[in-house]
Amino acid sequence: MTPTSEATSALRTEGLTKHYGEVRALVDLDLDVRPGEVFGFLGPNGAGKTTMIRTVMDEIRATAGTATVLGMDSHRDSVEIRRHIGYLPSDLALYPNLTGRDTLTYFANLRGGVDRDYVRSLAERLDADLDKKVGDLSSGNRQKVGIIQALMSRPELVLMDEPSAGLDPLVQRELQTMMRELANEGRTVFLSSHTLSEVQRVADRVGIIRSGRLIALESVAGLRTKATRRVELDLDGVADPAVLLAVPGTADVTVDGHRVALSYSGRMDTLLAAVTAHHQLLDLSTQEADLEEIFLRFYRGADEARVLS
Ligand code: ATP
């Protein structure tokens, strides 16, 4: 079996479930990652992210459900799948006595077809030290070797489990730039993370997992419209608060002469249409949407999270 070029999903799970004894690490997960997107898989510690990735990689067997990777069955075609994807596990085992360079050469020989110049450029961009023995590297510098081995074959799909772990902010930024470049080339990035800011910066869509269940699946742009922003309007007259409060998503309206301040979650054109039906809008200022607030809502309770479903 080879990857089906007509595959409409880079990665798809249906009813994927994994129990460890009494622990329901993954519950009935349906996910469809599209070719060419950066998909952020976001969740707090213990949410089930690593379990999902390890199940898809056939490192552990699902209790129920199926996964397909580039159109291939994750269990039956697991060997072939590995030829086509890159993978950074959460606990990559490396030989401590090999240097970073020898480690990458070893992986490249196993895999074949790796362009050495590309490896060199990845190492430069991540500021990776390939001369030291891996056992002597700090965890962040070891992580860089893992990231390079995941990317060096220019895979169609790369799965990365918490790739930013241990990386300093500059290197994290560079990695984010690299992920966007991969997506621009039509490759797919599956990024597991517990950091909203990272996912917000780099992902096209985000799936939020909590206690093994997918509790939200949204485009990052969509999440932004659902987050609450503070909006200030300067009008040509005194506004009627009732008019503003009639717009779904508005709250905390204060009117001070011609100036209005309010909280708003929703599409800005909806709010502006309602305002300009009654007034001329002289000026507008709005804070950038704070996804943190919406994200914490998800993390705290599944009931509240239903607002987005
Ligand atoms: P983190 O961000 O901390 O890495 P995660 O989202 O990757 O978390 P998982 O490692 O998938 O979460 O863990 C999901 C749940 O499954 C947790 O309750 C964890 O304790 C449990 N778990 C994971 N591996 C095992 C195992 N081998 N045996 C028993 N329980 C396990």
Explain what the structure shows:
The chain is an alpha/beta fold and 309 residues long. It has twelve helices and 14 strands. It has a six-stranded mixed beta sheet with strand order 6-7-8-3-9-10, sandwiched between helices. Strands 2-1-4-5 form a four-stranded antiparallel beta sheet, with helices on one face. Helix 3 runs parallel beside helix 5 (139-151) and helix 4 (116-126) packs antiparallel against helix 5 (139-151). The longest helix has 16 residues, at 169-184. The chain is elongated and about 75 Å long. It starts with 10 loop residues before the first strand and ends with a helix. Mean pLDDT is 90; it is low at 302-309. Bound molecules: adenosine-5'-triphosphate (ATP). Adenosine-5'-triphosphate binds next to strand 2 and helix 1.
Summary of the model, kept short:
This protein has 309 residues and is α/β, with parallel strands linked by helices. 35% of the residues lie in helices and 28% in strands.
Shape: elongated
Low-confidence stretches: 302-309
Ligands (ions, cofactors included)? adenosine-5'-triphosphate
Order of strands, widest sheet = 6-7-8-3-9-10
Task: Profile the largest sheet.
Answer: 6 strands, mixed
**Count of helical segments?**
12
Structural class: alpha/beta
> How many β-strands, per DSSP?
14
Question: Residue-averaged pLDDT, rounded?
Answer: 90
